[in-house]
């Protein structure tokens, strides 16, 4: 028996007498800080995204393809990773080579792709966090962790919530959730910030409102 089996065995024994009818966990904690309108919640999201060094853009449905094309052109992207369920119209205005999200793609192949464009599952205003859940329009988790440039589209206000508890209510815990607060970054012991360590160096978030 190895260490893993011993630990799991202890967990099973500890849970053996647990009753399924135990009292529910109290969830009477504060669900959001202050009261905001939908528009104010979106503004808070944009403010906190920018505070985390994400680049925030705004447009409507009609302007989205041109905006994405412009961002890829400005970046100098020659290729873009595309989740299988992404709206084809989003990339209609760009001639950049599209790379499909494939299970067999190697990390080296993904690293050679310049950009990735995805949708999102939910965005949390109070923390400036974008959450992906692996849905067809977001793709596999790794496609947003390896390429250096991530363009993420958020529909406002319907995909924006005030707080993490509200966001969790919309998410399936069984799905592969990726929580993104700005571009990937870390700091060494001298607090020198280095970006692009565990994910993209540049995160651009597009807030798409109505027509």
Structure, explained:
- Strands 1-12-7-4-2-3 form a six-stranded parallel β-sheet, with helices on both faces. Strands 8-5-6-9 form a four-stranded mixed β-sheet. It has a two-stranded antiparallel ribbon with strand order 10-11.
- The chain is of the alpha/beta class.
- It has a single domain, classed as Rossmann fold (3-Layer(aba) Sandwich).
- It has five helices and twelve strands.
**Rg for CA atoms:** 20 Å
Number of domains: 1
Strand order of the largest sheet: 1-12-7-4-2-3
CATH architecture: 3-Layer(aba) Sandwich
Order of helices and strands: HHEHEEHEEEEEHEEEE
* Average residue-wise pLDDT: 91
Spans of at least 5 consecutive residues whose pLDDT stays below 50 are none
Characterize the quaternary organization of these chains: single chain
- Beta-strand portion reads 15-25%
CATH class: Alpha Beta
How helical, in percent, are the residues? 10-25%
Cα end-to-end separation: 62 Å
Give the number of DSSP strands.
12
Sheet/helix structural class: alpha/beta
Q: What's the helix count?
A: 5
Query: At the third CATH level, what is the topology name?
Result: Rossmann fold
Question: Any idea what the shape is?
Answer: globular
- In CATH terms, the superfamily is NagB/RpiA/CoA transferase-like
Main sheet, how many strands, which sense, barrel? 6 strands, parallel
């Amino acid at each position: 028996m190895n260490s893993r089996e011993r630990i799991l065995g202890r967990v099973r024994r500890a849970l053996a007498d647990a009753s399924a009818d135990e009292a529910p966990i109290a969830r009477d904690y504060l669900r959001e800080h202050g009261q905001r309108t939908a528009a104010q919640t979106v503004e808070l999201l944009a403010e906190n995204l920018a505070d985390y060094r994400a680049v925030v853009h705004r447009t409507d449905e009609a302007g989205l393809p041109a905006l994405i094309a412009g961002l890829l052109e400005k970046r100098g992207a020659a290729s873009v990773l595309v989740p299988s369920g992404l709206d084809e119209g989003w990339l209609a205005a760009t001639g950049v080579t599209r790379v499909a999200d494939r299970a067999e793609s190697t990390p080296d192949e993904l690293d050679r792709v310049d950009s990735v464009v995805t949708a999102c599952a939910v965005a949390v205003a109070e923390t400036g966090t974008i959450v992906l859940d692996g849905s067809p329009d977001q793709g596999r988790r790794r496609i947003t962790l390896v390429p250096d440039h991530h363009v993420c589209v958020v529909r406002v206000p319907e995909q924006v919530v005030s707080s993490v508890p509200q966001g969790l209510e919309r998410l399936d815990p069984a799905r592969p959730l990726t929580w993104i607060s700005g571009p990937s970054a870390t700091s060494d012991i001298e607090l020198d910030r280095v970006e692009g360590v565990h994910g993209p160096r540049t995160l651009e978030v597009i807030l798409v409102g109505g027509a």
